[in-house]
Write a structure and sequence with these properties.
Aspartate Aminotransferase, domain 1, globular, alpha+beta
Length: 124
């Protein structure tokens, strides 16, 4: 497996953002300068680094230890349980796992009705 390049990281970051936006009632926002986020209702569930440093920030419980063990990953000062994962240098097979981490973050942040809606969509 190959490490994700800077160019590939920007492409993957855009793909991760599109995946997050596919969640029920998810929407895009830019609350801080050039950092993009995806929210469900009014709460952030995914944070994307800027184009110079592509990353994904997610709130985790079950996968927190696994995510913080990734090369360069670190706890975020944003709030407890949030982890920032730099994309450059990750193994290119990590794409599906990053999708899982976004979904876990969504499930932690979203109201139960939207989690139920996501489960329905996933079983269809």
């Amino acid at each position: 497996m190959a490490a994700i390049s800077a160019r590939g990281a920007k492409k993957l970051q855009d793909e991760l953002e599109n995946y997050a936006l596919s969640m029920p009632e998810a929407w895009f926002d830019t609350p801080w300068d050039d950092e993009r986020v995806t929210k469900v209702r009014k709460k952030i569930f995914a944070i994307y680094g800027n184009q110079d440093r592509p990353s994904i920030g997610v709130r985790l419980q079950e996968s927190h230890d696994e995510a913080t063990a990734l090369d360069g990953a670190a706890a975020m000062q944003y709030d407890t349980g949030w982890t920032d994962i730099p994309i450059i240098g990750l193994d290119d097979s990590m794409s599906a796992r990053l999708h899982d981490l976004i979904e876990e973050s969504f499930r932690i942040i979203a109201p139960q009705a939207l989690i139920d809606q996501l489960d329905e969509e996933l079983t269809d």
